[in-house]
Amino acid sequence: MSFSRRDRLAFLMLDWSKCSAVERNPVTVSGAWVFTGTRVPVQALFANLEDGARVDDFLEWFPGVTRQQIEAVLRHAEQSLAVA
Length: 84
Known about the structure:
Elements: H1 5-13, E1 22-23, E2 34-35, H2 42-50, H3 55-61, H4 67-83
């Protein structure tokens, strides 16, 4: 999976507040959007996928994140980018 510069910019502009699988706290991970109940930034998922990792790899590397959270994040990104 490869992301263009346009895709990266679009990712940064997504309204993650509408995705129940993520949360943001200004004092946690510098206010980055993270998977709910973790300190794992959502951006880490996309960076790892771009580098060739599989979802199963990510789940192994970040055991606090669930498959359901990943699916919700990917679905939210896809729907948001389709509208943009």
